[in-house]
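User: structure tokens for this one?
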Amino acid sequence: MQSRHPTPGSQTSLREANRARIVESLKRHGHLTQVELAGATGLSAATISNIVKELSAAGVVNTAGTSRSGRRAVEVTLARRQGLVAGLHISKRHMRVAISDVDRTVVAENHLPLASDHRHDREMDRAALLLGDMVDALDASVSDILVLGMALPHPVDPLTGMISTPGLMRGWDGVAMADSMSERIQLPVFVDTEANMGGLAELRSGAARGITSGVYVRVGNSIGGSLLINGSSYRGATGRAGEIGHVMIDPRGPLCACGNKGCLEVFAAGPALLELFRDDPGIHRLRDVLLRAEAGDSGATRALADAGRHIGAAAAIISTMFDPEMIVVGGELAEAGELLLAPLRHELERATIGTIAPTVVTGMLGDRAAVLGCLAAAIDNVAAEWKPQIR
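Assistant:
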């Protein structure tokens, strides 16, 4: 049976981890001398020197002579390749594609609606065609793209590349997502949840900048979460870490698509809210509920407040275990602002152990958070593509 983890303590896994620490430090700081790299990573000067030589030979880093305090030193920077990266966000009801250069400047972006029961083959075909049209408009080609980052509404097992929990996306079970998309565009593809991608974007350029521990909660037609730790999203063994939408808040509640009863999603996600207004001919989508609440409709306002309290109850469970500095709420429902966040905070403070609950804020990047996170992940994985093989 295939193991999920490298052999503990092996020279291969240790050297791989050390290389990743060096590359990550350079991503964060831009350029460091070898002495500064040793301080930033905790590795010995000899280890730094040897790995920098390997990375330089592989084209991952550049080195140059410099001086610090009157002494000669070797400065190390990540090598920069010309090219583009792409992001693809396939949500329950929308697809968004963006292209940026390696300096994170978005040069093209497009989105289109999806049917509620969309299948993986059809939508990946559409995504490949849309991506081709977009690079054509840039007078480029798909081959100019280095990596594509892809976001899906539900967790993907890092080992198999498939949706971790069958049944959540009809027609998508048993499909290795990254491989399936890669076959269509002949490019490296990195896949993660829309919550993890959105959380990464908020960490890099949004509401979570500067924090070391946080939770990103994406609330729309589905509910997803991401644990943000030391500048990245923690995925867990099977990609399901932070899945707040499937935290059980009432064991006697309705059956969820995941097979359990009383999950947060069956109380606070888009379908649950729309079900409350099934006899109202003026409400067909979440946007209608938000507009009604903004206009002062008491029923819509109450529905959002109840959703906020349910999310707060689930957030309290995660906060008790994880103790985050901040909770960032994104997704379409976050547009409700304090109508959602005030009851969420109240329930979180009531149910959190101790006297100080985490700060709760609205995300800054809106509907674009996930696709911007895809671009950030793609840029991060460009360095991974240059990584020399260990034998």
